[in-house]
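ok posting inputs for the magnesium ion job
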Amino acid sequence: MNKTITVIKGDGIGPEIVTEALRVLDKIAQKYGHSFTYQQIDAGGCAIDKYGTSLPEESLQKCLDCDSVLLGAVGGPKWDGVDKNIRPEAALLGIRSAMGLYANLRPAKLFPQLSGASPLKPEIVARGIDLLMVRELIGGAYFGDHITEEKNGEKVATDLMTYSEHEIERIARTAFNTARKRGKRVISVDKANVLDSSRLWRAVVHRVAAEYPDVTCTDMLVDNTAMQLVKDPSQFDVVVTENLFGDILSDEASMITGSIGMIPSSSLGEGTRGMYEPIHGSAPDIAGKNLANPIGTILSAAMMLKYSFDMDAESEAIEAAVNKALDDGYRTGDIMSEGMTQVTCSEMGDKILENI
Ligand code: NAI
Ligand code: MG
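and the output
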């Protein structure tokens, strides 16, 4: 198969980790007889430096004109002061919105080799952690009106959280369809005891759930979910929630598995095209030192093969190669522990390549 992949290396450790992921994709292409064409574009802080905007029109066009997008990370302290409309993160919001990517899928899976890295008690970890957060990505408070105004001699700031039925319905379908391929359990997270948008959320999710009698659906309030994730994460299979709650809960879910450097994500819309990226940021503290963990980005590439290109065997070959590198004791600094062999970002790439 021929696929065109738009590649955004971005800022900080972005270029280092994406380089390793592209090496892995090249090896897969060679082994399985595919051809991947990469179109590299500038977005994020590096684009601000070059063009004065984090998402030049030409870059956006290449995201719309490809089979999928692979992203490293954007941002860093250098651009903290810039106007909010051209901030590095604005590029991501712009791409997600233009590509219609309304679903963010984030697996939180504990690698048994790294169980010691989980901050949870061993007896809780022993029950296993393998859940998938399905977060609504282009609605809610992040996309509602943001207003700061003067009222009665002081500043008043408002962020509007809005959801329509069709926005809730499509993300609910993503969750139920995904659950069918996993443990057939959906937990829908809201704050229906307080928020109108959550009451509508709950009603629409129940309506969709009725079409999936083979999948169980349970409601959970967001504050309780935050507690349950640390109390017994093994109870979760697919968790579906709105944008702001999902942002917070998916970070929490990632932390309980250990390293933030290990976790991939995908953002999907109606078609098969998606955007794939590790969940972490640009890690300015270790950028340019060949210290970053490339596994989150490599597993993001694996997700791209599975969800967008229908290449299940190829995707699983990458996962197996990562597992083997961990089994063999290789660790980047962020996941290093006693008795293991510490490797650099590019050495971890080498080890994974050898296993494919
Ligand atoms: P971060 O995820 O970049 O870093 C948090 C901590 O985790 C740091 O100590 C870092 O060294 C470590 N870390 C992250 N990824 C790692 C990896 N692959 N290997 C080893 N260690 C890793 O979060 P932070 O520091 O809050 O944000 C830094 C910058 O990244 C900010 O400008 C932020 O806006 C941006 N950011 C970008 C995101 C994106 O592009 N999707 C997402 C989150 C933050
Ligand atoms: Mg976040």
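notes: The pocket of magnesium ion (ligand 2) is lined by residues 247, 251 (CB under 6 Å). The radius of gyration is 20 Å.
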